[in-house]
Amino acid sequence: MADTRKASRFxxxxxxxxxxxATIGLVPALAASGDPDLPEITAQQLIEKIAASDTQTxxxxxxxxxxxxxxxxxxxxxxxxxxxxxSSSADxxxxxxxxxxxxxxxxxAADGPDRQKLTLLDGSDEYSLIHNGDDVxxxxxxxxxxxxxxxxxxxxxxxxxxxxxxxxAELPGTPKQLADEVLKAAGDTTSITVDGTAxxxxxxxxxxxxxxxxxxxxxESVKIAVDAATGTPLKFTLASVQGGKPVVDAGFTKxxxxxxxxxxFTFKVPEGAKVTEGAxxxxxxxxxxxxxxxxxxxxxxxxxGGFAGLGEGDLNVIGEGxxxxxxxxxxxxxxxxxxxxxxxxxxLDSFGDKVTGKFGSGTVFKTKLVNALLTDDGTVYVGAVxxxxxxxxxxxxx
Length: 398
Fold this sequence. Notes:
The protein is of the alpha+beta class. The protein folds into two domains: 20-277, outer membrane lipoprotein receptor (LolB), chain A (Clam), CATH 2.50.20.10; 310-396, TATA-Binding Protein, CATH 3.30.310. The chain has helices at residues 2-17, 43-52, 92-95, 175-183, 294-299, 342-350, 387-396, and strands at residues 23-24, 57-66, 102-111, 115-122, 125-132, 135-140, 145-150, 190-200, 203-212, 219-227, 233-240, 248-256, 274-277, 314-318, 325-329, 352-357, 360-365, 371-375, 379-383. The protein has a 13-stranded mixed β-sheet. Strands 14-15-19-18-17-16 form a six-stranded antiparallel β-sheet. The relative contact order is 0.18.
């Protein structure tokens, strides 16, 4: 089951960061009827505005919806996402994986790199993650469990700073964090334009639209609503070529750039709560697992965060930009699904298609964003590309 968890963690980092390479269009923003009438701005100017944004304080509410097109209502139904048997239900490493499925409402507050708070609302239950100075606290009201650990020196909730970078006040899954992951890698495989204006959380915003120039990608577009006054991304939408609901739709419904009260970041252990102390060396704020192998990371042009843990073997990178495919030779034939329990066979058949080609035969496991081809001889091809692109890569034998 641990392997299943690792595989699920691969999807979201690729969703928000695996769309590497971009060229900046110079299309000015023109207000549509009913939208804010703002001064014209080019994509180059808007990206510079995002980069220059120095928002250190904010509070508000945002909603994040994720629809990867998986059967059974999402990744959580694959099992094992709720944590290992003996781990704390408040451990953010496990809890924040819930964001990869369904719709969630979160309250956030930030006061510089040393104080942030995120509260995940789930009906009458709440889950809070608080970073205050040297301490990181997490509390799950449903189980009345607390997770505590010391924040690594010089790091914010995102875990930056270990490489000498400026600590970040970002919180997991915020529109700015998602936008930064897409924009930080630039090249010639993407078109970036400004497409009108919008009102987001009562704020005037420009609409930045990012689209692949390459065919074969599963990504239709990435749209980022940027606050006209502060340059802070307010909404992030990732759409699939399959259409329907966005793969990721994260945006503020209410936002205030004033300084939150100091009491917002104070945590007192509730009476009777079970407290689990995290290991000092544990990475803070990285819910998606281990780092990518160097070759795959370079192939996408940036740091993609978590890797699926596809197993031992030689990893090769095919293509570039939006159509990058990782090829992994596992060195062992694929397991025969007809020998698996009926329940497992049904699950695999529900989102796997049998395919054949010059390479032989195999199964394509699909989501709306990331697809993977597992050949019968044990070779894996995976990327944010269409089924045809995976089969073509396998046929070339690269």
